[in-house]
Design goal:
This protein has 18 helices and 25 strands. With about 600 residues, it is α/β, with parallel strands linked by helices. It has 3 domains: about 5-235, Aminohydrolase, N-terminal nucleophile (Ntn) domain (Glutamine Phosphoribosylpyrophosphate, subunit 1, domain 1), CATH 3.60.20; about 245-440, Rossmann fold, CATH 3.40.50; about 450-609, Rossmann fold (3-Layer(aba) Sandwich). It has an 8-stranded antiparallel beta sheet with strand order 3-2-4-1-10-9-11-15, with helices on one face. Strands 5-6-7-8-12-13-14 form a 7-stranded antiparallel beta sheet. It has a 5-stranded parallel beta sheet with strand order 17-16-18-19-20, with helices on both faces. Helix 9 packs parallel to helix 13, helix 13 (about 405-420) packs antiparallel against helix 14 and helix 15 packs across helix 18. Bound molecules: 2-deoxy-2-amino glucitol-6-phosphate (AGP).
């Protein structure tokens, strides 16, 4: 999604800004731009639709140089992807501004600015902000005060950075609802929407808080809180090396990340061995919270929501603790009745998803005894704002389609089940069984990866199809949902998941010889019931693709293709089967020629609601 990089330095910063944008590219965007104040105090602007490399080409052709600048990657919300709508937006050749988020009252502000004589050259919500800032500057305010006044007029979410040719060594910025971090340099300072963009220039960061407004120059920085009072914010040293991210011989990040799962799952579970007690994997104070907790509320979006749905089965069945799961965009706006002594669990790969973050904030104030986040990104907003934290060890995930982040989240949630279960219904024997299953998980995932060529062969059948149905029962139902999400997001084939028992209540009407039906078959008590559901599909001419335990008694026959999955412990089946479905989506997308790592219209980190 949108990315911001800004610099106030004594050296030329165009390459720093471009490198920052390159580091944010994986998040997804459709246009990019950069504005610099040159040494004659003129605003120099490049912006266009397309990739950062196009911006680099433009910069090579017509170099713009300067020591103060702002840059942006845009993921369109208001106004189509185009050069005109790309950021930075400028006002009167004086002010340039970049923005992440959505200004909800932009229409009213636009009317007001039009009436004051401002002209608009884009369809964005952002352009009102740059004109408001310009208007305040024209009234004789300093750049900082002008921004403080401007943000007071905004409704919605924003991270903003702006420069003004009349304050040529300053960058001002503000955040509310979208992340922004200061990178502290020596004789230079930076801003970005993600510290990753600045790891090339510094390892010292200040994460800004809600409502903060900041002014940086090469030699100073001043932060003000929402009410305009100067404040100090904590400095964080991030010393671990930035992960080297390359394709490592794979054709796509998604394929690489699918294959990294045995290592990522082992590393995530290994945290249990490096802490004296499993509770400690969730942060200081976890034991006290876990002793008190009587119910769990999970909140997340997309794939992370599916991880929550799987966890509900584990938490209720194994740990005997009531658990509810809800998508964050619904949870945050709903009047709720919460069980006494509930723990709020958010799940988010990025730790920055706007709805999940808003749900956490909205639940503050005594509704829950504590909050716990399961995230892949240390120092992300959700991590900083939650009481307890479980960090998955997936490593950086670049592919927009979440793979290793999902399966490592499941490991974290199974560990949470163990931590809570030992205090409740879970016998010592059952705990040992789950521990053994977690230890054996990387091997079973490896065995599943070895089915790659079989799955590749099967995937051809999906190429001419426009729709697909995914079925599962029990804990495999959320896995069917995740399989359908993966297929639709990267191959653009419309896919829906149903609990197999729901088939007769509607979706069976869709089944004909043009509708592939993918079944995630368990080998537990529900197997026989699933077999009957599949029979219903087959007798209506549907083509079945069954991912089943090799000991479950399924055999391939005309119009039924069975994929023999490794016979593994029941509790880890959701994780193991997911890997096969990831491979299926990957191969379908590959043959359809879609952009596997950056599917159209999607972003890696969804920082707007
Ligand atoms: C996954 O393949 C998706 N791209 C998407 O559903 C994602 O899981 C969702 O946006 C939530 O992201 P998060 O885990 O970073 O919060």
């Amino acid at each position: 999604m949108c990315g911001i990089v800004a610099a106030a330095a004594r050296r030329e910063v165009s390459e720093i800004l471009l490198e920052g944008l390159r580091r944010l590219e994986y998040r997804g965007y459709d246009s990019a731009g950069m504005a610099l104040i040159d040494n004659e105090h003129n605003l120099q602007l490049h912006k266009q639709q397309g990739k950062v490399c196009e911006l680099e080409k433009a910069q090579k052709l017509h170099p713009h140089l300067g020591c103060t600048g702002i840059a942006h990657t845009r993921w369109a919300t208001h106004g189509e992807p185009s050069g005109a709508n790309a950021h930075p937006h400028i006002s009167g050749q004086r002010v340039a501004l970049v923005h992440n988020g959505i200004i909800e009252n932009h229409a009213a502000l636009r009317e007001e600015l039009l009436a004051s004589g401002y002209e608009f050259s884009s369809a964005t919500d952002t352009e009102v902000v740059v004109h408001l800032l310009h208007q305040a500057l024209d009234g004789g305010k300093t750049l900082l005060v002008a921004l403080q006044e401007t943000v007071r007029r905004l409704e919605g979410a924003y991270a903003i950075a702006a420069v003004d040719v009349e304050h040529p060594d300053q960058v001002v910025a503000a955040r509310k609802g979208s992340p922004l971090v200061i990178g502290v340099g020596i004789g230079e300072n930076f801003l970005a929407s993600d510290q990753l963009a600045l790891r090339q220039v510094t390892d010292r960061f200040i994460f800004l808080e809600e409502g903060d407004v900041v002014e940086i120059t090469p030699s100073s920085m001043q932060i003000y809180d929402e009410s305009g009072v100067p404040v100090e914010r904590k400095r964080t040293l991030i010393s671990e090396a930035v992960e080297v991210v390359d394709l490592g011989g794979f054709d796509h990040y998604m394929l690489k990340e699918i294959h990294e799962q045995p290592r990522a799952l082992a590393a995530t579970y290994a945290q249990a061995a490096t802490h004296p007690h499993i509770d400690d994997c969730f942060g200081a104070g976890a034991a006290r919270v876990f002793d008190r907790v009587k119910a769990i509320q999970i909140v997340a979006c997309g794939t992370s929501f599916h991880a929550g749905m799987v966890a509900r089965y584990w938490l209720e069945e194994l740990a005997g603790i009531p658990c509810q799961v809800e998508v964050a965009s619904e949870f945050r706006y709903r009047k709720r009745v919460t069980h006494a002594d509930s723990l709020l669990v958010t799940i988010s790969q990025s730790g920055e998803t706007a709805d999940t973050l808003a749900a956490l904030r909205n639940a503050a104030g005594g509704e829950f005894i504590a909050s716990l986040v399961v995230s892949n990104v240390a120092n992300s907003s959700l991590v900083r704002e939650s009481d307890l934290v479980f960090l998955t060890k997936a490593g950086m995930e670049i592919g927009v389609a979440s793979t290793k982040a999902f399966t490592t989240q499941l490991v974290g949630l199974l560990m949470l089940t163990l931590a809570l279960g030992r205090r409740r219904a879970m016998s010592e024997e059952k705990q040992q069984e789950v521990v053994a299953a977690l230890q054996s998980l990387p091997d079973y995932v490896q065995q599943t990866l070895e089915l790659n060529s079989v799955i590749e062969e099967l995937s051809g059948a999906f190429i001419p199809k426009h729709h697909a149905l995914f079925l599962g029962r029990g804990i495999e139902y959320p896995i069917a949902m995740e399989g359908a999400l993966k297929l639709k997001e990267i191959s653009y084939i419309h896919a829906e998941a149903y609990p197999a028992g729901e088939l007769k209540h509607g979706p069976l009407a869709l089944v004909d010889d043009d509708m592939p039906v993918v079944a995630v078959a368990p080998s537990d008590d529900l197997l026989e019931k699933l077999k009957s559901n599949l029979e219903e599909v087959r007798s209506r001419g549907g083509e079945l693709f069954v991912f089943a335990d090799q000991q479950a008694g399924f055999v391939s026959e005309p119009r039924v293709k069975v994929f023999p999955m490794p016979h593994c412990p029941e509790v880890i089946k959701p994780i193991v089967y997911t890997v096969a479905l990831q491979l299926l989506s990957y191969h379908v997308a590959l043959q359809k020629g879609t952009d596997v790592d950056k599917p159209r219209n999607l972003a890696k980190s969804v920082t707007v609601e």
